[in-house]
Structures are given as C-alpha cells and as structure tokens.
Request: fold
Amino acid sequence: MKVLVVDDEQPLLDALQYALQREGFEVVTATDSEDALRLFHEQNPDLVVLDVMLPTRSGFEVCQILRKRSNVPIIMLTAKGAETDRVVGLEIGADDYVTKPFSMRELIARIKSVMRRAKTPASAAGNVLKAGELSLDVDRHEARLGDTPLLLSPKEFDLLRFLMEHPGQVFSRQTLLDRVWGEEKYIEERTVDVHIHWLREKIESDPRKPKYLLTVRGVGYKFRG
Reply:
C-alpha cells in the first residue's frame, strides 16, 4: 500500500518515512502543497497523511482539492489542542486526525484503521441499498443520486450505509460513534454532526430541509427511507 506523507518539517518527515517503511508501506513524501498535489496525481497513493501547516497553501486547501478529485482516505496532522483545526479538517472531508506530538505507533494504528474501513468487503453479493433516488452499492463502494455518482469519503460512506441499513431508527451521536467509528479513540461527538452536514450537502436537494438525513432534536439522527 502506498502512502503520501506531506509535512514541511524534514526531520519529522524522515522519521515518518522510516517508521512506515518498516511496517511495509511504500512511502512518497512532499514538503509543500504543490509537490503534494503533483505527487498525488503521479503516484496515485492509497492514503494521504497531511499536515495542516504547509507553505504556499494550507493542508486544508490541499485536502479540499484532493477531496474534489478522489475519495482516498486522508489523515490530518494538527497542532496540540487545536480543536478548530480538527473540526475544520473533518468538515472539508478528512477521515481522521492525529494531534502533534504523536507516537509513530498511534499514527500507524490510525492508518491501518482507516484503511480497514475503506476496504471492508460487503457481507453478501448484490448488496445495494436504495431510498428514493439515492442508492448505495456496498459491494462496489459506490453511491449515486439518480444517475449522478456521489464522491463520498470512506467515513461518509460508512455512516450513510449504517443509517440506510436501519431506516427510521433514531441513533444518538454516541451510538453512531460506537457503531461507525468503533475502536478509534479521541473522537468527539461533534464529528458525527460534521459528517452528517457533509452528507446532506451531497445527497439532499436542500440541505436546510433534509429529505433523507433527519435530526431528532435532543436525541440524534435517523434515515428516512
């Protein structure tokens, strides 16, 4: 599996490359946003580890550009205690974040967790979930609204799949964290709100008056099939 690591701190970049290669990953590195975008196009990585603070363009801008091109998993590296960075990263399509300083063991665990979610096979062939014009092909990991393909991040896909598999059932934010994010640590309930917001932007004709993803005030969310 190929990982693109983007960070302007060369010592940290070297350490990340060494640690990931020891785990069997193929590693491509970039120290600025322009190199990151070029290498992403040339190398077609399976996952991107992306620092927020970069020269020329921020990691947020790079994340937005990548998300328009691909649903490749993205893990953001944020400054210690920068909750705003974490929320913004999730809002623009990142799948996870790791706060600096971090241990290599933690980052590698996050990478493996994100990749497991992205590659989880369907339990049965022909598993297609449908509601109105919305369809989710679990086998092919594809989503459509009518004839239009939807570019969903792995986590957006997982969350939508879970809710579509339980139409009409109300889930609290904590339950969704437990069922969709599972073993991940340090994930806040706000994360669910962010992903619901992004899904509404993609699947609802009017996100302010959602047809599919409904808020149950004081409880959580449900999917109306």
Remarks:
- The first helix runs from residue 10 to 22.
- The chain has a mean pLDDT of 87.
